[in-house]
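Work Package 4 report. The design task specified in the project plan requires that, given a folded chain encoded as C-alpha cells, an amino acid be chosen for each position. We show below one input record used in the internal validation round.
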C-alpha cells in the first residue's frame, strides 16, 4: 500500500491532539524518530506496542498508532503529575512547548499501569532526536501561521478571557459546545456524553436538562482561574474554549488573535448575531404594515447606516423633500402618498442589505438599533439578547419552520454591458448573451481575474468557440481550468507557453463521455488547439490559438 502524505498524517495528529489535550507536534516527533513498527496499512508507527488490554490488533494501523500514542502521552502526564510534577516541570512557557525534561521522560519509554486500559507501551528512543523532531514540527506549524514561538504571555491572556465568559454566556449552541469541550479536556475525558455525566446533570430520554447543564458549565468556568496550574492539558482546555467560542479555524489562529486583541473585551464578538440580523432584515417585507412606529424604526436604521445627522436628512436622502411634508401637513392624501414613497424607498434599501452588508461596526449598530425600535425594547443590550434568542431558535428550527433562516434572495444583477472589460465583469453572468459559460467558470469563482483587456477578449473568444463545441456535443462542459495567471500556471505544472495564461484555453470534461469521444467529435472542425490526456481519460483541452493543433499527453 502507498504511504500517507505528510499532510494526511498531520490530520490524524490534529484529531487526536484535540481529543486528548496534548501538544500535537509531539506526535509528529514520535513518528519521525521511531518509524516503527511496520503496520498493516503500509505505514510505520510511533513506537506504540500492545500493553494491558490493548492488543496488537488495536495498534496495527497508522490512525490507531496515533490514537494510542496520544492516550499514552496523556497517561504519562497523569503519572508525573501524581508524582508531584508541576505545570512548569511539564511545560516551557517561554518556548511554548513541552519542557526538555518531559520530552526526555517520553523518550525513555513507558509502560502504563495495569489500571490504565486506554494507554499502550511506548518504546524507548533517542531523547535528543525526539526533542529536535518535536521542535522542528513546532517550527513548521508556527511558521505556517507566522506565530512567534515565545508564548510566555499566553496564560495571562487565556485567564483574562475566562474571567469574562460567565457574564457573557448567551446559551448559544456553539458557546455551550465550547464550554463542554473545555470541561472534557480539563477532566481528560474522551466524549461529550461522559463529560455531561461528570457534571451530574439530569438526563431524560438521552437528553440533558439544558438549564441544569448551562448552570453547571457556568459554575465550572467560574472556578477555572482559581484552579489553573499551568498544566498542558489545562492550557489546551482553555485554548479550545476560546477557539470554539470565537469560532476560529485553528489553535494557532486562536493564539494569534489572543495576542493581538484585548481578551477581556473581545469574547462577546458581535459577529455572532449577524445571521439573526440578516434574517430579521429578510423578513421585513412580510411584516411591514406601514405603521408609524415601523417606519420610524426603518428610517432610524437607514439614518445610522448612512451616518446622517437627522431624520429630515434621512428622508431627503430617500428622495422626499422635508419641506413638502411640512407644506402637506393639512393634506392627508399628500401625506399618505409621501409615506408610501418613503416606505418603498426604505424597503428597497433594506432589500439590498443582505448583499451589501460588510460586517462593519457602524452597519451592525444601525441594524441593532432598528431591531431595538421595531421590537420596542428599552436598551441595546435587550436588543442583542433578543437576537441571541433568535439564534437559538434558528439553530433548532426545522427547515420549513418560521424560525428557520429565510432562504437568501438573489441580488438583482445589473444590465449586461455592451462589451466586457476588467471593470465590469459579473461573475454569475454568462460570457455570451445566450451562452452557457459564465465568468465564474472562467475565473475560478473570481479568484483569477483577468489583469487586462487582452485577457478579457481572449476569454470571450474561447467562450464563443466553446459554445459551438458544447452545442455540437450536446452535453454541458464541466470546466476544471480556464484562465490561469503565470504564477498559478507554474504551480500546477502548466507548460511555459500554455494558452491558459493567455485566457483562451479550457480544460473540461463531459459527464458520461471519454476524452477520446470528445476529441473524435471535435477534431474535424475545431479551428484551434485540441488535446487529450492518457493519464486522465475523461479530460479534454481546447484553445483558440490561430492554427489547428492536435496532441495527446502521454
Amino acid at each position: 500500500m502507498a504511504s500517507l502524505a505528510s499532510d494526511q498524517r498531520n490530520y490524524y495528529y490534529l484529531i487526536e491532539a484535540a481529543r486528548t489535550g496534548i501538544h500535537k507536534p509531539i506526535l509528529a516527533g514520535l513518528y519521525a524518530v521511531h518509524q516503527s513498527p511496520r503496520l498493516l496499512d503500509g505505514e510505520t508507527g510511533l513506537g506504540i506496542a500492545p500493553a494491558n488490554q490493548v492488543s496488537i490488533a488495536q495498534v496495527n494501523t497508522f490512525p490507531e498508532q496515533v490514537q494510542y500514542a496520544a492516550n499514552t502521552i496523556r497517561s504519562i502526564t497523569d503519572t508525573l503529575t501524581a508524582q508531584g510534577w508541576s505545570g512548569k516541570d511539564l511545560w516551557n512557557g517561554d518556548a511554548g512547548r513541552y519542557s526538555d525534561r518531559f520530552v526526555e521522560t517520553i523518550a525513555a519509554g513507558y509502560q502504563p499501569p495495569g489500571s490504565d486500559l486506554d494507554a499502550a507501551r511506548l518504546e524507548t528512543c533517542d531523547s535528543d532526536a525526539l526533542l529536535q523532531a518535536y521542535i522542528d514540527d513546532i517550527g513548521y506549524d508556527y511558521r505556517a501561521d507566522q506565530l512567534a514561538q515565545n508564548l510566555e504571555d499566553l496564560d495571562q491572556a487565556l485567564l483574562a478571557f475566562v474571567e469574562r465568559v460567565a457574564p457573557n454566556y448567551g446559551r448559544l449552541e456553539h458557546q455551550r459546545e465550547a464550554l463542554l469541550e473545555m470541561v472534557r479536556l480539563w477532566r481528560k475525558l474522551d466524549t461529550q456524553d461522559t463529560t455531561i455525566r461528570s457534571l451530574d446533570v439530569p438526563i431524560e430520554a438521552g437528553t440533558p436538562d439544558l438549564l441544569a447543564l448551562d448552570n453547571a458549565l457556568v459554575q465550572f468556568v467560574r472556578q477555572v482561574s482559581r484552579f489553573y496550574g499551568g498544566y498542558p492539558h489545562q492550557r489546551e482546555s482553555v485554548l479550545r474554549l476560546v477557539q470554539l467560542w470565537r469560532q476560529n479555524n485553528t489553535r494557532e489562529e486562536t493564539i494569534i488573535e489572543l495576542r493581538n486583541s484585548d481578551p477581556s473585551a473581545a469574547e462577546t464578538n458581535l459577529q455572532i448575531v449577524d445571521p439573526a440580523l440578516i434574517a430579521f432584515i429578510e423578513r421585513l417585507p412580510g411584516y411591514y404594515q406601514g405603521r408609524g412606529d415601523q417606519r420610524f424604526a426603518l428610517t432610524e436604521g437607514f439614518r445610522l447606516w448612512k451616518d446622517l445627522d437627522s431624520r429630515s436628512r434621512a428622508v431627503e436622502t430617500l428622495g422626499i423633500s422635508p419641506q413638502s411634508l411640512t407644506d402637506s401637513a393639512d393634506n392627508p392624501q399628500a401625506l399618505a402618498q409621501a409615506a408610501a414613497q418613503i416606505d418603498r424607498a426604505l424597503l428597497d434599501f433594506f432589500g439590498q442589505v443582505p448583499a451589501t452588508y460588510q460586517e462593519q461596526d457602524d452597519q451592525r449598530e444601525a441594524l441593532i438599533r432598528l431591531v431595538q425600535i421595531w421590537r420596542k425594547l428599552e436598551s441595546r443590550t435587550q436588543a442583542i439578547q433578543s437576537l441571541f434568542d433568535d439564534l437559538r431558535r434558528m439553530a433548532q428550527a426545522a427547515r420549513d419552520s418560521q424560525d428557520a433562516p429565510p432562504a437568501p434572495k438573489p441580488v438583482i444583477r445589473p444590465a449586461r454591458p455592451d462589451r466586457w472589460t476588467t471593470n465590469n465583469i459579473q461573475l454569475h453572468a454568462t460570457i455570451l448573451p445566450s451562452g452557457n459559460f459564465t465568468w465564474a467558470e472562467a475565473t475560478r469563482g473570481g479568484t483569477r481575474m483577468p489583469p487586462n483587456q487582452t485577457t478579457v477578449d481572449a476569454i470571450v473568444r474561447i467562450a464563443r468557440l466553446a459554445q459551438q463545441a458544447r452545442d455540437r456535443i450536446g452535453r454541458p462542459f464541466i470546466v476544471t481550468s480556464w484562465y490561469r495567471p503565470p504564477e498559478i500556471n507554474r504551480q500546477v505544472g502548466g507548460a511555459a507557453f500554455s494558452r491558459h495564461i493567455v485566457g483562451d484555453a479550457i480544460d473540461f470534461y463531459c459527464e458520461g463521455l471519454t476524452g477520446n469521444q470528445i476529441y473524435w467529435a471535435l477534431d474535424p472542425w475545431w479551428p484551434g488547439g485540441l488535446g487529450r490526456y492518457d493519464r486522465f481519460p475523461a479530460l479534454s483541452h481546447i484553445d483558440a490559438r490561430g492554427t489547428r493543433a492536435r496532441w495527446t499527453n502521454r
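The CA atoms of residues 264 and 386 lie 23 Å apart. Validation will be extended to a larger panel in the next phase.
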